[in-house]
Amino acid sequence: MPKVSVIMSIYNCKNYKALEKSIESIIDQTYSDWEFIIYNDGSEDDGKTSEYLKKLGKRDSRIQIIDCPNNHGLAYAKNEMIKVARGDYITAQDDDDVSHPMRLAREVDFLNRHPEYAFVGTVAKVFDNSGTWGHYGLKEKPTKNTFLWNSPFLHPSVMFRHEVLDQVNGYRVAKDTMRAEDYDLFFRLYAKGYKGYNIQEDLYEYRIENNPNKKYRPMSDRIQEAKVRYKGFKSFGMLTKGIPYIIKPILIGLIPQKIFYIIRKNRY
């Protein structure tokens, strides 16, 4: 039985080279006791994504490809992968990101040595097609107050204890978690008394495009995130304190894109 299950969900892959590099970064890990479950979430691209995955799946016998005929969304896909995952630890990998060769080794070692933590993530380099352009910094030991401004964890960098995900029934499949299933999960974990830690090493490379002429999140997604924040702060008993932060994603969506571009540059 593998110690670690790596899960990845893909829908209509648009960049084969990025996908290939992402998968190779798991194959090239110094830690080798893993399985890699890749879920094709009902891609509608005339079989292109399916063919990509069949080709890449042949590179390592530890890779398992699951083809779903219909698209159900990220939270549903992750729950389906968790159901078949055999590892004591579960971690994700986004299909256009890259893991440092020591990422799994560092995270497994941390969880082995720190039973008081339910999960562990890392800080990361931020990159796009032009190369590295920023740093994704996070607090080492997040508290409930750390949730106010943003999610205190970089979700695809996080490794969870399998039994902890089972305790909270995995990801919540709902309209308001379509673009915030990770934030919602961390809220629910902390509400139950679990806690996480962020290793202060760049063990992940996180793709963020920062184009001054392009909006990346429609207002509908921002409204859904506000709903997740409302439920999360309510579960923390922090609703009054959290009100300004509940409406934060909506207010940010009203900022002109060129100004938001500058803010984002300074954030990372």
Automatic annotation (TrEMBL):
Note whether Transferase occurs among the keywords: yes
> Which GO molecular function entries does the Swiss-Prot or TrEMBL record give?
glycosyltransferase activity
What family is reported?
A: Belongs to the glycosyltransferase 2 family.
Q: Where is the Glycosyltransferase 2-like domain?
A: 5-165
SUPFAM superfamilies per the UniProt record, alphabetical: Nucleotide-diphospho-sugar transferases (SSF53448)
Keywords, sorted A to Z: Glycosyltransferase, Transferase
Q: Which organism is it from?
A: Lactobacillus delbrueckii subsp. bulgaricus
Listed PANTHER family: GLYCOSYLTRANSFERASE, GLYCOSYLTRANSFERASE EPSE-RELATED
The entry's protein name is Beta(1,3)galactosyltransferase EpsH
Protein's UniProt keywords contain Transferase: yes
